[in-house]
What does this fold into?
Amino acid sequence: MSFPTQRPRRLRRTEALRNLVRETRISTAGLIYPMFVCPGTKVRQPVSSMPGIAQQSVDQLLEEAREVEQLGIPGIILFGLPESKDATGSSSASAQGIVQRAVEAVRKANLNLVVITDVCLCEYTDHGHCGVIENGEVANDATLEILANQALSHARAGADIVAPSDMMDGRVAAIRAKLDDHKFEHLPILAYAAKYSSAFYGPFREAAQSTPQFGDRRSYQMDPANAREALKEVALDIEEGADMVMVKPALPYLDVIRRVRDNFNVPVGAYNVSGEYAMVKAAAANGWLDEKRTVLELITSIQRAGADIILTYHAKDLARWLRSS
It folds into this structure.
């Protein structure tokens, strides 16, 4: 039997050969670890749907942030659970707000971490939506000033990057103008540019206590069927001043990540969201999947699709596995 000259299996024969020719190499360099901060002291409340993840008071969060730093993970993104909620999410912009206090604590501890803050109202409103409500609907323009003030308060607390996730039209421009007017022109914006209305957010809503009290978010988050629209959203956010853009969720939208990567010359992030994390954890707990192999494969797929930055709850496990490999 005659074989062709090319035998692709030659380069798969040993682990050393496979490592030598590997096209996508994952590392901790682009990982961001999401964290949930809540009021109180010595509070660490596990999130039942997200094994290994907890709502934590600032003192406890600081301990985990030190661990994140020691593992070589470059950054964290903070989500806040406020002491009180109201119709306009007013506590989100308070200098004494929970996220603001957490940022200040990380800064005071001199941790070598990039601190990103999520800018949105869903955790702070009593109705759970990402904007203020007028006539039974989420009011776009009435929300922009509140978001801009929230971002400014995060900047004043010491955030390195602000990341608006609300999906209001024009919010990047409003935040950029507010930051620039207050001498924070150096502060980057990471825009959740293509954020889809997804079933994969369920566990996050438990963690952030942000489930809408009525309706849903389909009037402002993107339709999962639309990919071309994502390019429009990204282009608008960049035009308004976004320095980086993000696709959320990651795994069901690898094609969108690739389109964004191919069409725009800015850093591209992807959020490996709570539902994606919870599915892997549940399957691994039942012995249905090898957790390490599964996570390494899915993170590789997100990076292969074109993501430079990956927000993932698997970050600490990944860092440990990569160190031991």
Notes: The longest helix spans residues 140-157. The mean pLDDT is 95. The chain has one domain: 26-324.
